[in-house]
Specification:
two-stranded antiparallel ribbon, mainly alpha, 312 residues
Length: 312
């Protein structure tokens, strides 16, 4: 577009960025300044460029991702729906005389696992897809930011939002449990490790969605991540098939799927708390280590795929 400067004088108007792009740049710049100030205050003797360190950039990206996710309406709807299902366990418990505690824990933890997984996959898939759709990813990459920092920073922001969501749902579940079980305080040492492992499951689901979103659309990322999670909850079946089938090729394929895909049953101890069985701390530690190693591999794969992707 040409703009008149005077008689016989014309010059092209500068192309303005879209409103969403400008808003994203402001969010990022504010977060980077805040990270620089926090670093400078925490370490007065640090160099002047310390605010631009990888840790400061990760904080800035995580802060921006957290703010964006908290504005998502889908997240709020899923949290409210999960809280509604947890509250409904109180009614179901009243219908089952003598089984109130078991019903509350079984249905409540089941609702947390299902809706938390859906929430994690949607958030993980939307983190990069939103930036690519608005074309703000090119603006972000013009900053002094490495691509792996974008992946890790956004994952940290998603992990924080999931932690807050799990905390809210757990608080409501404990409140309902206190209404139906006089000895609810004795359930906390069993409940908290189970909830922690649920949070690790959500982190795995979010990491898978982020990894798939580096090379596919939002719809395909959600489908792929949901499929891997569903298979992960039934991965023990692949080991049984490997022992039952006669074909060596099918047996090899079944074993490869069993060891290659995440075995989420290692992180599921809901049955133990429902039936008041003690959970060994060694089992919790092994499950946490398994989740941490798998998370590291998925995030590394996501960083490699994102590094190879080109943006217009």
């Amino acid at each position: 577009m040409l703009v008149a400067m005077g008689p016989g004088s014309w010059r092209p108007r500068a192309r303005q960025r879209p409103r969403k792009t400008r808003a994203f740049v402001r969010w990022y710049d504010v977060a980077m300044i805040a990270a620089h100030r926090r670093t400078s205050v925490a370490s007065p003797s640090a160099p002047a460029g310390m605010g631009a360190s990888p840790f400061g950039r990760l904080i800035a990206i995580a802060f921006t991702a957290t703010c964006e996710l908290l504005r998502e309406r889908v997240l709020r709807v899923l949290i409210l729906f999960a809280l509604l299902l947890i509250v409904m366990t109180l009614l179901l418990g009243e219908l089952s005389v003598g089984q109130e505690r078991r019903i509350v824990l079984d249905v409540g933890l089941g609702a947390m696992r299902v809706l938390g997984t859906v929430m994690a996959i949607l958030m993980g898939g939307r983190l990069l897809e939103r930036e690519i759709e608005r074309r703000t990813i090119a603006v972000l990459l013009t900053k002094p930011v490495r691509r792996w920092e974008v992946i890790i920073g956004k994952f940290c922001g998603c992990a924080l939002v999931l932690l807050v969501s799990v905390g809210i749902m757990t608080s409501v579940l404990v409140l309902i449990l206190a209404l139906v079980a006089p000895t609810w305080a004795t359930e906390l040492p069993l409940l908290l490790p189970v909830v922690f492992l649920l949070w690790l499951q959500f982190l795995l689901a979010a990491a898978l969605a982020i990894a798939f979103s580096t090379f596919s659309t939002l719809t395909l990322s959600v489908i792929f991540a949901l499929g891997v999670v569903l298979i992960g909850h039934a991965s023990q079946e692949f080991l049984y098939w490997a022992e039952a089938v006669r074909s060596p090729a099918l047996a090899l394929l079944s074993r490869a799927l069993y060891y290659g895909l995440p075995n989420l049953q290692h992180l599921n101890f809901t049955a133990a708390i429902v039936h008041q069985q003690k959970i060994a701390w060694s089992a919790i530690g092994m499950a946490s280590a398994y989740a941490a190693v798998y998370l590291a591999m998925v995030l590394l794969l996501a960083a490699v795929l994102f590094h190879r992707r080109e943006f217009p």
